[in-house]
Amino acid sequence: MNAVAGLLREAYAALQRGDAAQARLRCEAVLAQDPNNFDAWRMLAVAAQALGDAPRGLAAATRAQQLRPDDGPAALDLGTRLLHAGQAAAAAPLLQLAMQRLPQDARAAFRYANAAFQLGDYAAAAAGFAAATERDPNWPEAWNNLSAAHSRLQEYPQAIAAARNALRLAPQDPEAHQALAVLLSNLFDRPSLLEGLRSAERALQLDPNLAAAHRNAAVLLRKLGEPVRAEAHARRALQLQPDHPGSVEILGDQLILNGRGGDAAAIYADAIGRGLDTPVLQRQHGIALLHAGRARAAHEQLSAALRQQGDDQRSIAHLGVALAADGRVADAVDLLGLQRHIHAIDLAPPPAYADAAAFHAELAQDIRRHSQQRWEPAGLAARKAYLSGDLLADRTPAIVGFEQRLRAAIDAFIADARQRQAGTDAHDDVFLRNVPLRYRLHVWATQAAESGYIDTHIHEDSWLSGAYYVELPEAIVDAAPDQDDLDQADPDHANPDHAGWIEFGRPYAGLPQWPADALRLVRPQVGRLLLFPSYVFHRTLPYQGSGERISISFDLAAA
Fold first, then answer.
1. Angle between helices 279-291 and 295-308 (to 10 degrees)
2. CA gap 554, 329 in Å, rounded
3. In contact, 550 and 446? CB cutoff 8 Å
4. Rounded CA gap, 371 and 389, in Å?
5. How far apart are alpha carbons 365 and 347 in whole angstroms?
6. For residues 458-463, average pLDDT
7. What was the pLDDT predicted at 430?
8. How many Cβ atoms from other residues are within 10 Å of residue 136's Cβ?
9. pTM
10. Most-buried pick from 3, 54, 464, 491 (CB within 10 A)?
């Protein structure tokens, strides 16, 4: 045993002076005498790695961990090697053990979080990165990664707070300024967008050739209503990174918004011709062709994009417009399912309320005083209206009761959709073929008075959308008192302009317009939930008169 101990001391000393070859020889000599020597296996793993023999290093680390399965350092060593080898699934449980066994070691928490992030478990990643920042509050990379994990969870306040900490620790890092700008570009209030623009501009002061910062500046300026400056930044981003699909998309999109669909189509065609043939760029090329008045070519391009990415909501929406513009209105209506995929469900009030009137009165008040209520957020479709952020963030009895009723209705709808999917050729139905197995839900509320409305839009990142009506003004309620279904009303009734109704089918201004007789108009009713595909263009029509229109909307996306 004295000889083994001496060899181990010599191996350790060799590692300390950087002589990995001698360390390896000493460890192998120990293992020839004592094959289960834990310390020899651990040092052999380090020596082999230093000599560039990664397989031997991994094998040695694996044997060490097998000998002491509860040892924190051994788990950290093996987990790290597996993570670096691209085996995140195998690394994660080892690194989680290391994080538990080494409560002061920031590296263990950080590496476990990295493994979870790679596996798409962003909640676990956020917890791990948070632990790393607690163990080492001055680690900018841990704060930056914590921000990224919260961002993937769409937890933007937490993501922004973490990004601010990363920036505080690295104020001269252009990437840190850019990371904060990215997060702020996801918001819709003008102060946040202006702060985001300042962050992007500061990043460009530190690194004028940072293409990502130019892209972000373009997005922020677009939301802030400065199209000329937005286009200039988008052009510079494309100059710096001509083979970056995001740079192509942002410039092309800005050209479309600036009324130059033909120029945008040329940008996309050039990129695709150079090999940047992604589904997104194909779809954007089709949209640009549509804006340029080339409906037939747009139809072909959007069909190709949809074949590559069958659940792309923008492709579906614009393909319908292209079909109608090409004279195939019936095919367009059938593709979108305007007659078969818009459904109405009357929700019963939660059991805690005496009746629907009491429930809706309390729910309306909760919406009016919601903690995230904002007036006409920049970059969204609300006009002369309040829009809440996450409605479910305020856990009042009325909001919780509504959420329970909503989820029950959604679950029943999805179960029915799966049955319909099984009973038809779902491949030919762009809605039913994409029924999600699991879903995530985002819920918000709108509060609008006279002349307030929601402009034309779709919900790009979801599958199913809906609107529930909490309170309506008399101008809408009295519009067609004899009508209970989803059909259009007689044009001779008291509200021939359908003021306050929801309209389906009409696309954005600048696109070929949808035939008026193929629009779908629905009169809102308090207590009624409307469900419809997220790709359907829709808007609310303004009304005149007293009272408020208070509604709740949601997006449901595959989880």
1. 160
2. 29
3. yes
4. 8
5. 19
6. 92
7. 93
8. 17
9. 0.81
10. 464
